[in-house]
Write a structure and sequence with these properties.
About 55% of the residues lie in helices and about 5% in strands. The protein has helices spanning about 30-45, 45-60, 65-85, 90-105, 130-140, 155-165, 180-195, 210-215, 225-230, 245-250, 255-260, 265-280, 285-310, 315-330, 340-345, 350-365, and strands spanning about 120-125, 145-150, 170-175, 200, 220. Strand 3 (about 170-175), helix 7 and strand 4 form a beta-alpha-beta unit. Helix 1 runs antiparallel to helix 2 (about 45-60).
């Protein structure tokens, strides 16, 4: 069970369900040609060329918001697809993402005659996928909002300090990965506790926003234009009074999420050791293969914990299906994930919700392989 590492800091798998890009129904037909040109530039890792493409699109009459979302945003989406298909390396993905982030600076942002309000835009704690949040921040600036963009992985305590200091009218939180849902929930409730409403977005909240509602967010938007339209339509609902996580998620009282989360490291270590004992082929793994195997197990445990947090087996099953596709693109059988699920269940047999979640993951992957075929 080894795979090429995902292009993400802190060992996180990138772009879970990357193909499910959330875009506005409003589109400029001229943008696709410019997006193709920008893709060629970032694929060549040529920042000067990329800057020329963005400038050319603006000179050709494309509105800055269209260039932002339908040229730069579209090129970044293609980066994710190409990585998932194993047609880009980690280094190439990082280079392309960095270029797309920097060329946003070529867009003109003029001081509005009337500021619509103050909005803070941030990624939740430990969320490194910052570009979607920046696309939103720049969209709001273009539309006349005063935006405090805080970037990637903002600790909740620092977020609250910033909101107090700047007097934001609303906070927009981004999470690309569902493993960030517990941190997102903490941030949502903390911001609401100081009287500021929260809008959330990103695929971490599911394509239909189901987890946004579950975690008590005041609003959800599927993409940047929808978020900007919602804010322009009027103030977000007043946030609820301070409350506990179990008020939104009463199933947390069973402590299964807490136990899995607290023992995550030992679960990964024990599962890896038991795999070594049961599958002698692992003795031939080199250091890189062993590291990838440990990372795969850690990702499984992280998504298992997230599924327990929101009590949704489909979250875990969807992650495993996606992971199976990524592994297959790298020549690794998706069914190689099954032994890890079995070993985790051995250690977590006393947790009924956890067992149901692991069963859903097995069903998503299919029947168990012959142990002798595992490499």
């Amino acid at each position: 069970m080894t795979a090429t590492p995902a292009p993400e800091r802190d060992g996180e798998p990138a772009r879970h369900r990357v193909g499910a890009r959330l875009v506005s129904s409003t589109a400029d037909e001229r943008a696709s040609d410019w997006a193709d040109k920008l893709w060629s530039a970032v694929r060549a890792a040529d920042e000067y060329w990329a800057q020329d493409v963005v400038t050319g699109a603006l000179d050709a009459g494309l509105p800055p918001e269209t260039v932002l979302l339908e040229v730069i945003g579209a090129a970044q989406h293609r980066v994710g697809i190409e990585w998932a298909a194993n047609r880009m390396t980690v280094a190439e993905e990082h280079a392309a993402t960095a270029i797309n982030d920097r060329v946003i600076g070529a867009l003109p942002v003029r001081r509005p005659d009337t500021v619509l309000g103050k909005v803070t835009v941030a990624c939740v704690d430990k969320e490194w996928h910052a570009l979607p949040a920046r696309l939103l921040a720049e969209t709001l600036r273009l539309r006349g909002w005063q935006v405090g963009y805080l970037g990637a992985q903002v600790p909740t305590a620092h977020l609250i300090s910033h909101v107090h200091r700047t007097g934001a009218d609303a906070v927009c939180l981004s999470a690309a990965l569902s493993t960030r849902l517990p941190a997102a929930h903490a941030a949502i409730t903390a911001v609401q506790a100081v009287g500021v409403p929260v809008m959330v977005g990103g695929l971490g909240f599911a394509a239909d926003g189901r987890y946004a509602s579950l975690l008590g967010a005041d609003a959800w938007a599927p993409e940047a234009r929808a978020a900007a339209d919602r804010l322009a339509a009027g103030p977000l609902p007043a946030p609820r009074p301070p409350h506990q996580a179990t008020d939104d998620l009463p199933h947390l009282a069973d402590q299964e999420y807490t136990m899995v989360g607290r023992t995550a490291r030992s679960l990964v270590r024990e599962t890896f050791q038991r795999l070594e004992q049961r599958f002698p082929a692992m003795a031939g793994y080199d250091d890189a293969q062993r590291e990838r195997t440990a990372e795969d197990i850690a990702h499984i445990v992280d998504f298992l914990a997230a599924a327990l947090y929101v009590d949704d087996c489909d979250l875990f099953a969807g992650f495993l299906s996606w992971t199976g596709e990524i592994l297959a693109a790298r020549g690794v059988p998706a069914l190689s994930l099954l032994p890890a699920l079995d070993l985790l269940e051995e250690q977590l047999r006393d947790f009924p919700r956890t067992r149901r979640t692991l069963d859903a993951g097995r069903a998503a992957l299919g029947p168990a392989p012959d142990p002798e075929t595992l490499e």
